[in-house]
């Protein structure tokens, strides 16, 4: 199956689009609406909104690649987003990352981090000299 190579700049307001993306975050709201953050093949972040009345039509999970067909473009103040096109959108889980995506499957996005330690130079944050600050717990 040939996958579309559309990216965020190709999204046009109120126009249907076929696009692939990796879901990096999902959120359900109390009213039943769902919102997802996707990365397109060029690693542009795109928001996808699914209305409560349509949410039962879709099974979307984070860290998976999907083909979205007939998603509807939504442009507001220059920001291009997607919606479920009043239930006309279809979603297909892709078995693997499309070959034309340049980012390795196991790479971490800049928005995510697992564990680790953050080190800061205290002098750049404070005018208090180091000998006046007790760094021992």
What features would you describe in this structure?
The protein is mainly β. The protein is 3% helix and 34% strand. It has one helix and six strands. The protein has one helix spanning 122-125; strands at 16-28, 34-39, 45-50, 65-76, 79-83, 90-93. It has a five-stranded mixed barrel with strand order 1-2-3-5-4. The longest helix has 4 residues, at 122-125. The N and C termini lie far apart (58 Å). The mean pLDDT is 86.
Q: Radius of gyration, rounded?
A: 20 Å
How much helical structure, as a percent, in the residues? under 10%
* Main beta sheet: 5 strands, mixed, barrel
- In N-to-C order, the SSE pattern is EEEEEEH
- Taking the alpha carbons of the first and last residues, their distance comes to 58 Å
Our estimate of the beta-strand percent is: 25-35%
Structural class: mainly beta
Instruction: Specify the overall morphology.
Output: elongated
Stretches where pLDDT is under 50 for at least 5 consecutive residues are: none
Number of helices: 1
Widest sheet, order of strands:
1-2-3-5-4
The overall pLDDT, averaged over residues, is 86
Number of strands: 6
């Amino acid at each position: 199956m040939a996958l579309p190579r559309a990216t965020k700049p190709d999204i046009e307001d109120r126009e249907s689009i076929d696009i692939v993306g990796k879901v990096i975050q999902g959120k359900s709201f109390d009213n039943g609406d769902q919102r997802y953050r996707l990365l397109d093949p060029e690693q542009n972040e795109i928001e996808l909104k699914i209305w409560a009345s349509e949410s039962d039509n879709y099974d979307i999970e984070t860290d998976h690649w999907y083909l979205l067909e007939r998603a509807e473009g939504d442009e507001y103040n220059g920001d291009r987003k997607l919606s479920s096109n009043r239930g006309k959108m279809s979603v297909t889980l892709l078995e693997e990352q499309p070959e034309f995506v340049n980012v390795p499957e196991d790479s971490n996005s800049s928005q995510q981090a697992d564990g680790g330690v953050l080190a800061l130079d205290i002098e750049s944050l404070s005018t208090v000299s180091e000998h006046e600050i007790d760094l021992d717990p």
